[in-house]
Design brief:
Radius of gyration: 48 Å
Order of helices and strands: HHEHEEHEHEHHHHHHHHH
Helix content: 55-70%
Largest sheet: 5 strands, mixed
Strand content: 5-15%
Number of helices: 14
Shape: elongated
Distance between the termini: 129 Å
Structural class: alpha/beta
Number of strands: 5
Strand order of the largest sheet: 1-2-3-4-5
């Protein structure tokens, strides 16, 4: 079997319709809850305990969620409750909300929360119609909702499992934020052998849904015939028809001719599903080779496209780099000119201040010199008039506002000269 190039089968419409077929049936849903829901109270439920209420909720919530399923599971006989523990005699059931995903969706926690609130509000309105004012009573309770994401994609599920992980700075509010987790059932976490060990019809339908490549078809064909066919031994006819629809949709997506498709699907009617791909996968090598060629062509186209994008990206990066360098250069020149201008302006201001300061100092020195000259003239005049030193000192103190010591010093200068 050729394994170098994988031909992936990825048709969202096919996957959605398959999910609707599976979870639209109560027997398959019952088996799914028992095998994969990981809740003790659901281990022993029976198909008659399940009511499909998808038509009530899904269209009201969103017209684009046709692959989602809402189930109402009666748990009253599995959870004995005393009369005083349920004084309002509220119905005991679990609402299971199953969202079907073929690829990782990072806002699924918020989608689930909106869905759950929608269901609880509807339940409250229904109870209020039957018993007015009941929702305001102390013992009123909303039904539990089990949110499940059924994921068929092969990639690892990397979306947050807790709603609080989608909220910024969640640690600031801690317990005051809504905390809830949904259950993830990832199809590809289970090997073909794990699914086969379950030994029920849901296992076979999930095995069919796992087929996404030629290698998956080969792996299915290599499953033990007896184990596979034993599961179909007591399968009701209508479940066989559901499996036929799943297989037919798969073969149609593989572009297998209608004649060969019906020939293969007939094996399910004969309860020989282990031979589903007999004379299809291995006897039509031309079709397989054609698919491989298409895959190679797609890979080559993708490679060329990637190289072209990479080249364009590199060219764009170079242009952006040149543009940024030019902008930085221009900015640096502008900053330099601005800095020089500011420095020049500052120097001019400092120079003006210095000149003004020197002028002021010169004025003050000129006043001092004029005062000293006046004092000197007066001393000379009074000396010529034969005035005593004391008289001259008193005159200087009174008319020039100096101290006696300064007056004596000025008189002393005359004698020195």
């Amino acid at each position: 079997m050729y394994k170098e190039n994988k031909t992936i089968i990825d048709n969202p419409q096919l996957r959605d319709s398959s999910s609707k077929l599976i979870f639209g049936d109560n027997i398959l849903s019952c088996q799914f809850f028992r095998d994969y829901a990981d809740m003790d109270i659901l281990r022993n439920i029976q198909p008659e305990d399940i009511e499909d209420v998808s038509e009530r909720y899904v269209p009201l919530y969103s017209t684009q969620r046709e692959s989602d399923t809402v189930k109402k599971i009666n748990i009253s006989k599995y959870l004995p409750v005393k009369k005083d523990e349920n004084s309002l005699d509220l119905p005991l059931y679990i609402v299971s909300l199953i969202e079907h995903k073929t690829k990782v969706e990072y806002n699924v926690a918020m989608q689930m929360l909106r869905y759950m609130i929608h269901i609880w509000e509807d339940y409250e309105k229904q109870m209020e119609k039957e018993h007015s004012g009941i929702s305001n009573m102390k013992d009123f309770r909303y039904p539990p909702i089990l949110p499940i994401v059924y994921y068929e994609g092969k990639r690892t599920w990397t979306a947050p499992m807790d709603l609080s992980d989608r909220i910024l700075c969640k640690d600031l509010l801690g317990k005051y934020l809504p905390h809830f987790q949904y259950q993830l059932v990832r199809l590809h976490d289970y090997s073909n052998e794990d699914l086969l060990k379950k030994g029920d019809e849901i296992s076979l339908t999930m095995l069919i849904n796992k087929i996404a490549s030629l290698e998956d078809m080969e792996a299915f064909a290599n499953l033990p015939d007896e184990q596979v066919n034993e599961i179909l031994k007591d399968t009701p006819e209508y479940l066989l028809k559901i499996m036929e629809k799943l297989a037919r949709a798969l073969f149609y997506n593989l572009s297998i001719p209608e004649e060969k498709t019906e020939e293969a699907v007939a094996k399910i009617k004969e309860r020989k599903m282990a031979r589903l791909f007999e004379n299809v996968t291995f006897n039509y090598q031309a079709e397989i080779e054609s698919m491989r060629n298409k895959t190679r062509q797609m890979e080559e186209d993708m490679k060329r496209d990637m190289e072209k994008r990479l080249e364009e990206k590199e060219q764009q990066m170079e242009e952006d780099m040149e543009k940024r360098l030019e902008e930085q250069k221009q900015q640096m020149e502008e900053d330099m000119e601005k800095q020089i201008e500011e420095q020049k302006q500052q120097m001019e201001e400092d120079m003006e201040k210095q000149i003004e300061k020197q002028k002021q100092q010169m004025k003050e020195q000129s006043k001092i010199m004029q005062k000293e000259q006046e004092i000197f003239k007066q001393i000379c005049k009074m000396s010529l008039k034969k005035c005593s030193d004391t008289e001259i000192e008193d005159y200087l103190i009174q008319n020039f506002c100096i101290t006696r010591e300064e007056a004596k010093e000025e008189i002393g200068k005359l004698y020195e000269d």
